[in-house]
Amino acid sequence: MFIREKLSPRDFKEKLKTVKLLSLDVDGILTDGGLYYTETGDELRKFNVKDGMGMKCAREAGVELCIISASTTNAIQERGKRLGIPHVYTGAKNKIEILQKICDELGISLDNVAHMGDDLNDLSIMEKIGTPITVADAIEEVKEQTIYVTQKCGGQGAVREVCDLLVKVNS
Question: What are the residue ranges in the chain where pLDDT is below 70?
């Protein structure tokens, strides 16, 4: 595997003009990666409201969104539903296969996809898309495969950071 060169903020904005679909992992991207358990064993996640508003704005600017997660919790489906995201996949064993299916449905090339992921199970996507992005607290192997690392950490507004840039370049 080679290490991708990071783009300058200006070049990254130019690259974002080609993005038609923003694909998102959940744990470590839409959340801070922490898992909370109730006394009865129910699993909880904390989502950032600002990320949610950013996703809504990106969709209004014409960017499609999808969520692809290896996790199986119902909270992910519920979050996607509340944000009006039609493509939410949980329990994903082969993320790139799912992403390719979404792209085929939407008539979008993988070259026109941005994906935000932070861990090893996102590498299969990062290697095949046009705009791989990660968060400040991602593992090093993922940072090496991306062209842009957000200033913010997962669950702390990193998705909003990217969505705001997508809105800006599509205005």
Answer: 1-2
